[in-house]
Amino acid sequence: MSDYGPDPGAAGWFVTVLSAGACPGGLVVSARPVPARRARTARAALLFAVVRLTG
User: Fold this and answer.
1) Which residues contact 42 (CB under 8 A, 6 or more apart)?
2) What is the largest CA-CA distance in the chain?
3) How much is the pTM?
Protein backbone atom coordinates (compact mmCIF):
# COMPACT_ATOMS: atom_id res chain seq x y z
CA MET A 1 0.00 0.00 0.00
CA SER A 2 2.87 2.38 0.61
CA ASP A 3 3.59 2.43 -3.14
CA TYR A 4 0.18 4.06 -3.66
CA GLY A 5 0.33 6.60 -0.83
CA PRO A 6 -1.39 5.13 2.26
CA ASP A 7 0.62 3.57 5.06
CA PRO A 8 0.88 -0.26 5.19
CA GLY A 9 -1.71 -0.41 7.98
CA ALA A 10 -4.39 0.76 5.56
CA ALA A 11 -4.24 -2.51 3.61
CA GLY A 12 -6.65 -4.21 6.01
CA TRP A 13 -9.26 -1.47 5.63
CA PHE A 14 -8.81 -1.49 1.85
CA VAL A 15 -9.37 -5.23 1.57
CA THR A 16 -12.36 -5.05 3.92
CA VAL A 17 -14.05 -2.27 1.96
CA LEU A 18 -13.26 -3.97 -1.35
CA SER A 19 -14.79 -7.27 -0.25
CA ALA A 20 -17.76 -5.54 1.40
CA GLY A 21 -18.62 -3.98 -1.96
CA ALA A 22 -17.75 -6.95 -4.15
CA CYS A 23 -19.78 -9.59 -2.31
CA PRO A 24 -23.16 -7.84 -2.41
CA GLY A 25 -22.47 -6.62 -5.93
CA GLY A 26 -21.74 -10.13 -7.13
CA LEU A 27 -24.87 -11.47 -5.48
CA VAL A 28 -27.04 -8.77 -7.06
CA VAL A 29 -25.61 -9.40 -10.52
CA SER A 30 -26.03 -13.15 -10.09
CA ALA A 31 -29.65 -12.76 -9.06
CA ARG A 32 -30.49 -10.16 -11.70
CA PRO A 33 -28.15 -10.28 -14.71
CA VAL A 34 -27.64 -7.28 -16.94
CA PRO A 35 -30.12 -7.32 -19.86
CA ALA A 36 -28.62 -7.88 -23.32
CA ARG A 37 -29.48 -4.34 -24.45
CA ARG A 38 -27.53 -2.84 -21.53
CA ALA A 39 -24.62 -5.28 -21.79
CA ARG A 40 -22.89 -3.18 -24.44
CA THR A 41 -23.01 -0.09 -22.23
CA ALA A 42 -21.80 -2.03 -19.18
CA ARG A 43 -18.94 -3.54 -21.20
CA ALA A 44 -17.88 -0.10 -22.43
CA ALA A 45 -17.98 1.31 -18.89
CA LEU A 46 -15.86 -1.54 -17.54
CA LEU A 47 -13.35 -1.18 -20.36
CA PHE A 48 -13.13 2.56 -19.72
CA ALA A 49 -12.59 1.96 -15.99
CA VAL A 50 -9.83 -0.59 -16.62
CA VAL A 51 -8.06 1.73 -19.06
CA ARG A 52 -8.27 4.62 -16.57
CA LEU A 53 -6.93 2.48 -13.71
CA THR A 54 -4.04 1.00 -15.67
CA GLY A 55 -3.08 4.05 -17.66
Assistant:
1) 34
2) 43
3) 0.37
